Amino acid sequence: MNIKILSVTKKDNLYEVEGLVPAKCAVGYYHVKIKLQGFRIIESKCDCGENFCTHAIKLEFAYVKMKNKLSS
Fold this sequence. Notes:
- This is SWIM-type domain-containing protein.
- It comes from Sulfurisphaera javensis.
- The chain is an alpha+beta fold.
- The chain has one helix at 54-71; strands at residues 4-11, 14-22, 29-37, 40-46.
């Protein structure tokens, strides 16, 4: 299962990224929202219930990878 980026919005100098990150169990996906300032996560929310969890980091990596592909 791959990470799915659902939306990216820009508000002032912050980017809000929303996506689905695969869970290791049979749950399927966790719904994750992160706010980025540059390449730094300043806020995150995840269905797993933790703040700044591995799912948020995986979504950030997927977003950066997608952004780099589009710019090259």
